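so my prof wants the structure for this chain in the tokens format not the other one, which i didnt know existed until like an hour ago. anyway here's the sequence
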Amino acid sequence: MAAVAAAVVAVAVVAVAGPKAVSDLLLITLIVGFALNAITTFMAIGRKEFTPFQKKAQLLLIWLVPFVASIGLLVFYRSMDDKTHRKSSGDTPDIGSATGGGF
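here's what i got, hopefully its the right format
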């Protein structure tokens, strides 16, 4: 849905403002994408729940699939930090261990 909206906006900008606005829009998109990746990278590095291998895999995803992976991991991190869905404060699963969490 967001991709369709972005495409419609891009076509409207080209029709109204011309090619210069498209290059500005592309530059803004690149800056926002880089900032989003940088924020997600620092959040991934700072997480204590993940092993070094898992952190490296997440970083690889962040930079290979820029917007989708960054937004997806930010939502995942937020859901992990959300304490309203936990039964007790000590119910924090240890991601990646054989004894952690589960169904």
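also thought this was worth mentioning. Helices lie at 2-17, 19-46, 52-64, 66-81.
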